[in-house]
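Render this sequence as a predicted structure.
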Amino acid sequence: MIVNPDRKFMTPQEYLDWEERQPIKYEYINGEVFAMTGGTLPHNSIALNLASVLNSHTRSKGYRVFMIGAKLGVSENGSFHYPDVMVTCDERDRRAIKAIYYPCLIAEVFSSSTEVSIAVKNSNNIVVFQR
């Protein structure tokens, strides 16, 4: 993630309205926006493989699997993120168009240079697998 150089604090609704007009995606954390950087090809391949396996195993159960470009809303008041892979089976997400709010699984592909501590500090349910 890259900090927005303007560093203007926004409300969650201002962020949602603003981001729709941007050419790239931004995450929203505590009123600040952070530009999403592109991943590497191995990163993308790992996320695709995971999403494919999850999709093939959960499709018949009515689960929905999303990849890199799908927005995760922690709550209506933010934060908003773009995880590598997420799965939802919650009825409240069935008609979602802009964001998933009730995932049952969130997966991030971490490299050795990724800042893991931010994600771990913000969740009670993160498991980090390392090679």
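Summary. The longest helix spans residues 41-58. Helices lie at 12-19, 41-58, 116-121.
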